[in-house]
Amino acid sequence: MNQFLMIMLGLSLTMMNCHSGDPIEAILTDAPNVPPPIKRNYPAKIIAHLEVKEVTRPIADGVDYTFWTFGGHVPGKFIRVRQGDTVEFHLQNHPDNKMPHNIDLHAVTGPGGGATSSFTAPGHESQFTFKALNKGLYIYHCATAPVGMHVANGMYGLILVEPPEGLPPVDKEYYIVQGDFYTVGKYREKGLQPFDMQKAIEENATYVLFNGSEGALVGDKAIKAKVGETVRLFIGNGGPNLISSFHVIGEVFDKVFTEGGTRYQENVQTTLVPAGGSAIVEYKAEIPGTYILVDHSIFRAFNKGALGMMKVEGDENKAMYSGKEVDSVYLADKAEQTQAIAQAAAASKKGTLTKEMQIEAGKNLFMGTCSTCHQNNGIGIPGVFPPLANSDIVNGWDKQKLIAAILNGLSGPIKVNGRDYNSTMPPMSQLNDDEVAHILTFVLNSWENKGGVVDTEEVKVVREATLRPPGAAK
Ligand SMILES: [Cu+2]
Fold it and tell me: In terms of DSSP bridges, do strands 264-268 and 253-257 run parallel, antiparallel, or are they unpaired?
C-alpha cells in the first residue's frame, strides 16, 4: 500500500472514530421541559453555551431569594447529548454577576469534572471540551468556593448522555430537580430573604423545593399527561444536603433507573435520589386526576414546599379505580388554596390587603389545618371538638387570647356553648403570623360569629409576648 492510501485510510478511520458532520449547537431547555430525543446514529461534535445569571425571583409567595443559576432558572438548563459525542462547552459568566463560577459535570471524566478548566470571572467566558464516555443521567453543579453556598443558591442541573441506540420512546418527558434552601427568615416569611450559612451547615433547611420555587409544579404549572400515555421523569437532586425520597402519590413507577444508571428496577413506590445524584422514573398514566409529587420525608412536603403535581386527563377506568368515596381536603385543592394565599401574601407586601382577601386566604388555610378537628363548617364534633361556629368563646375572648390559643395550644376543662370539653388542642405555631391572622379573620367572619379583623402585627406581638410549650415550632 502506498503512503498516500495509508494516510487516507488513517484519516477516514479517525473521522469514523471521532465524529462526522458539522458541529451541532445543543438545544438547552428550562425545567420542566426536556430537549427532544437524539435521533443521530453517529457521534457528533456538540457546542453548548451555558450562561450563569444571578437573579432575584420568588422562592415562595411573597418571598424573594437571590438565586445563582445556570441559565436564569433553578434548576439549570437541561443538556442532552449522545454517548460518544464530543462536547465543546462554553461557560459564560454574565457581566452583571457579582461572583466567579465554574462547572463540575458528573458526566465528565477528567479533573473536577470540568471545574478545573472552567473558573470564570463575571464578564468572562471559559471553554473546555470533553467526550461523553458514559451513558446515564448526571448532575452538574458549580464548584467554586464556598462550594456549598453556590450549590445552595441553586447552581445545579442535569445532563443526559443518551445511549447510542437512544432511550425507548415515551409520550411525555419532564425535568424535575429537588433542592434544599436556607433562608434567614422562617418558611414563608416575606420579603427578600438572604442565605443563612449557619442553617446550611446544620442542614436545617427552610425550604425543600422542586424546580427552585414553591409552586413551580402546582396548579397550571403542573406537569401533564393523558390517560394511556407513558411518562418519563428525569429527576435530579442538587442538594446541597438532603437526600430525596421521591414519590408520586397514587402512582407506582413501572421502571426506575436507580441513581440515573444503566439498569432498572421495576414496580417501585419511592426512590432515593442522592444529593448530587439522579434517577429516571417511568410509568404509564392510567387514571385521570391530580397526582402529587413529594419528597416522602413528609414534613418537607407539607411544611417546606417539596410538593408538585401531575395532572392526568382522560376517561375514567372504573375497573381499575372506582373513583368514588374519598375526596375531602387531602391535597387535591392545593392549587386553589395556594392561589388565595398567594394573593393575600402579595397584597400584604404591597400594603393593599383587604379583609375579604384575608377571609379567602384564611378559609383555605382553615381547611386542612383546623377543619380536621373543628370540621369544615366549624360545628366541631359534640363532646370531642368544640364548635367555632357561633361559639361563645370565639365571640367572648379578646383577639390576644384567641391568637395565643392557636400559637400555644389549649388544654384543660373549657365550656363552649354550655357544653364541657376537656381535651387538648396542639400548638400551631408553625403557621406564620400572616396565616394565623387570616385564619382568625376567617373564623371571626364566619358562621354567625361577631366579625372583626386580626392583623399580622397583632399576631407578632402575641408570639413575642407568650411562651410556646416544649416541642412547638418557634
Ligand atoms: Cu457558582
Answer: antiparallel
